[in-house]
Design a protein that fits this description.
alpha/beta, Rossmann fold, GMP Synthetase, Chain A, domain 3, six-stranded mixed sheet, 12 helices, 18 strands, binds guanosine-5'-triphosphate
Length: 441
């Protein structure tokens, strides 16, 4: 099941960043070791009780004349309507209810998306509670009073948010069909790839209306197997400044990746791999998705017998945090090696759901421990009791030890490599959880 997406919408200065940081700072579990992934306030992974979601900030409004603010708020709200499962509309009790709030509330109400109305800066309940009731007039439900700065009311707000999540997002009738997100920088050939897949005889089927306004999911059949391709191309929205465009395309990439089983990161061979490619691939890595790097426009590269090695090495270097990623050199234009792309996607799907028996895992583990002694600290040596696989997508393992503090990142990496040597797991990240024996799961 893909994680729900929650978007924050609100006027400038109502406290969106403060709220975002409060949520992102304390309750998120992020993988911090992905180089090349800058974390600004565009998105964060939040966990509340037993629920996780992706929080996005559609932000980026310049405080300016009233008219511009309103039009930008509409734009922001539209992005939220397009991409989110739940919208958090945040207002400010100290500024009071203003006209643009009412207009945006109308828009949100018409979208029929679940909306949680939040009134911020209620630093004192006594002082402001009467003013909070005024926000009922927006007609989008009961206002929840919070103070983002003091971190009060946040739990109640999160309760309301998670209540709105779809019971089980698996109600989709296409749910057994693997979902493949095609992501990448502008102009790398994402649309060309999807068009090629749809255009050839062996691949047509239908277009199904996507969940979002301008993303179209395409159902593709290849060798009797169906796939749903999630297209993120054509993210250019007219008349937008560069920064805003970037934010929008990050949001769209994150939400597409969230829905996908496997992510095809398209890069442009004629340009070579860049930091921006690393950032985009990092979004898939952090979310534990299957990853295939499609090196496109291979037809346009002048080649000698070393070209492919040079490209491979360079990509491995820039994407060093995901050595497991599969590489395929393709041409969306000529269709070259598209069959190979499908074969690779199939293999990655299989690896994402591969389960290894505990007995077999522990044979690998004892061999690994015998070959390289676990680390020790101040006379105390790490003891590894056993390991077991507890999940898939991505394959997740728990290693039971005597003392968590003694388990170094490098030793976990060593065990990961041994597991990979034995079982491959190409194309998928692996997750390791270290637990002390006796600790509850
Ligand atoms: N009194 C009070 N002030 C708050 C609270 N939350 C945020 N603020 C203040 O409100 C101001 C705006 O907060 P931000 O979080 O930057 O607001 P924003 O909505 O992200 O603003 P933009 O980036 O312009 O869209 C800052 O000075 C915050 O310190 C609160 O709960 N109480
Ligand atoms: N030589 C060559 N050119 C290609 C190939 N694939 C795409 N192109 C060209 O690259 C340009 C961009 O292709 P698009 O498919 O529009 O790229 P995109 O990633 O969808 O771009 P956005 O919509 O901006 O995100 C076009 O001029 C294509 O003709 C390829 O395999 N070989």
């Amino acid at each position: 099941m893909s994680k729900p997406v929650v978007a924050i919408v609100g006027r400038p200065n109502v406290g969106k960043s403060t709220l975002f940081n409060a949520l992102a700072g304390e309750m998120i579990s992020i993988v911090k070791d992905t180089p090349g992934v800058t974390r600004d306030r565009i998105y964060a992974d939040v966990t509340w009780l037993d629920k996780s979601f992706t929080l996005i900030d559609t932000g980026g409004i310049e405080p300016d004349s009233g008219d511009i603010i309103l039009s930008q708020m509409r734009e922001q709200a539209q992005i939220a309507i397009d991409t989110a499962d739940v919208i958090v509309f945040i207002t400010d009790v100290q500024q009071g209810l203003v006209d643009s709030d009412a207009k945006v509330a109308d828009m949100l109400r018409r979208s029929q998306k679940p909306v949680v109305l939040v009134v911020n800066k209620v630093d004192s309940v006594q002082k402001y509670m009467m003013d909070v009731y005024e926000f009922y007039n927006l007609g989008i439900g009961e206002p929840i009073a919070i103070s983002a700065a003091n971190r009060t009311g946040i739990g109640d707000m999160l309760d309301e948010i998670v209540k709105e999540f779809p019971e089980d997002a698996d109600t989709d009738e296409d749910d057994d069909i693997p979902k493949i997100a095609v992501v990448g920088k502008p102009n790398v050939g994402k649309s060309s790839l999807i068009n090629k897949l749809l255009g050839e005889d062996r691949v047509i089927v239908s277009d199904i209306a996507g969940t979002t306004r301008d993303a179209v999911d395409a159902k593709v059949k290849w060798k009797d197997r169906e796939y749903i391709f999630i297209d993120t191309a054509g993210l250019r929205r007219k008349g937008k400044i560069k920064e805003e465009l970037e934010r929008y395309s990050v949001i769209r990439t994150v939400t597409a990746v969230e829905r996908a089983d496997v992510v095809v990161v398209v890069i442009d061979a004629t340009e070579g791999v860049t930091e921006q490619d690393a950032k985009i691939a990092g979004i898939a890595h952090e979310r534990g998705k299957g990853v295939v790097i499609a090196v496109n426009k291979w037809d346009a590269v002048e080649k000698d017998d070393k070209t492919i090695y040079k490209h491979t090495n360079r990509i491995r270097e820039v994407l060093a945090y995901m050595p497991y990623a599969e590489l395929v050199f393709i041409s969306a234009k000529s269709g070259q090696r598209l069959p190979r792309l499908f074969e690779t996607i199939d293999a990655v799907i299989e690896n994402q759901t591969l389960r290894i028996q505990t007995g077999v895992l522990n044979e690998i583990l004892s061999e690994a421990v015998a070959m390289q002694q676990p680390p020790s600290d101040r006379g105390k040596r790490l003891k590894i009791f056993y390991m077991t696989q507890v999940g898939v997508k991505p394959p997740t393992f728990v290693i039971f030890v005597n003392d968590k503090e003694l388990m170094h990142f490098s030793y976990t990496r060593y065990i990961e490599n041994k597991v990979r040597d034995a079982f491959g797991f190409r194309g998928t990240s692996l997750k390791f959880i270290i637990r002390e024996r006796g600790e509850k799961s």
